[in-house]
Amino acid sequence: MTKDMHDKDSATRRDFIKAGMAAGVGALLSPLLVKTAHAAAEAAPAAAPAAAAAAAEKPKLKIGDVLRVAREKLYPICRVCPECDGVACAGEVPGMGGIGSGQAFKNNYNTLNKIDLVMRTFHDVKKPDLTTTLFGHKLSMPVTSAVTGGVSYNMGGKMTEEEYVISILGGCMDAGTLGWVADGIGDKMDVFERRIAVLKNMFGGNAIVTIKPKTNDEIITRFRMVEDAGGLAVAIDIDSAGRAARAVPGQTVEPKTPKQLAELAKSTKLPFIIKGIMTVEEAKIAVDVGAKGVCVSNHGGRVLDYTPATATVLPAIADAIKGKATILVDGAVRRGQDVLKYLAMGADACLCGRPLVRGAHGGGREGVALMMNIIKDELTVAMTLTGVPSVKNVPANVITKGQA
């Protein structure tokens, strides 16, 4: 046999051996491969929805992201300061600041901030009850939105009126509470109509609507619109009475006599609320004329410079009318601890404003709900660590005395 023939024969035998080994391995692996393929095929239908759900799942909204986006949209109208204390925005009205020196805004914040909570841990309060009822509507906590509006001139115009109302009302609803629909001082009737349309068509009327102190005829006309929309209550923010210079030309904005207030209370079957009460005398008058609720408020420090803080006047007002009308309060509500302080001073519920403006701009409806749920969580912890079982009966000794 020649060398070439020997090499050729050797190559043929090597190829045969390789082929045999491959066939053997293939025979051994074949059942395993088939079984694996069948298992993958059977798992695919079950895995597909899970994978699709994971892909479609929305990332959880974070407070840092909300504040960052809010700062981008609101600046320079609002700087979204770490502490919303009225210092940086003093005098910026229109805008988000306090009027003039900004002292009234700062009074609200500073006075409430100086009141301390008394910690008590020898008790059995593990799951405090935050639920309450406001004008027949059950709430998950005694906090609603405040009366905020005027996106074009107070907030920089980065949202439409409809987007803002949807964010406030929807976010509050998602958190188990209520929003308020505002009536801006510089708004024409069509702007108010657009807000009411959102209230009626998207939320079935589940909100409180406040109206500027226009003439009584103008107010009653708007009351009818709220009634038609299924609103839960109506209010006038009488603390806007001195802002005629910013009203639409030809539109009246005025203080009200007790007789005029009584006419408004009798003109509607809805609960009538007077917002802007800062004295015991006027709180008593409000009850006498038929108001079902009063809101202790200096309009966030945005109408009269150097007014006292709402935390300063609330205790005396509560002592005078507790049980005769629902007592609401606003003014620097930033945290759940602030809510507990106001409840200890006699309020039935609080209104939260500027944090929800940030929530709406930074995360829309979801951002407002996030802000509200943070406040709810903070209130739960505060009640647990002060031994308060229910928001319906918060004792005065929960807070330090003499600070307000």
Description:
The protein is α/β, with parallel strands linked by helices. The protein has twelve helices and ten strands. The protein has helices at residues 3-56, 63-74, 103-114, 151-154, 161-174, 189-203, 216-229, 258-266, 280-288, 310-321, 336-344, 354-384; strands at residues 132-134, 137-139, 143-145, 180-181, 208-211, 233-237, 272-277, 293-296, 326-329, 349-352. The strands form two sheets. An eight-stranded parallel beta sheet has the order 3-10-9-8-7-6-5-4. Strand 5, helix 7 (216-229) and strand 6 form a beta-alpha-beta unit. The longest helix has 54 residues, at 3-56. It is globular.
Brief synopsis:
The protein is α/β, with parallel strands linked by helices and 404 residues long.
Order of helices and strands: HHHEEEHHEHEHEHEHEHEHEH
Structural class: alpha/beta
Biggest β-sheet, characterized? 8 strands, parallel
Number of strands: 10
Number of helices: 12
Task: Walk across the major sheet and give the strand order.
Answer: 3-10-9-8-7-6-5-4
Q: What would the average pLDDT be, to the nearest integer? A: 88
Q: What is the helix fraction of residues, given as a range?
A: 40-55%
Q: Which word captures the global form?
A: globular
Q: How far apart lie the N and C ends?
A: 116 Å
Radius of gyration from the CA trace? 31 Å
Chain oligomer state: single chain
Query: Are there runs of 5+ residues with pLDDT below 50, and where?
Result: 1-48
How much of the sequence is in beta strands? 5-15%
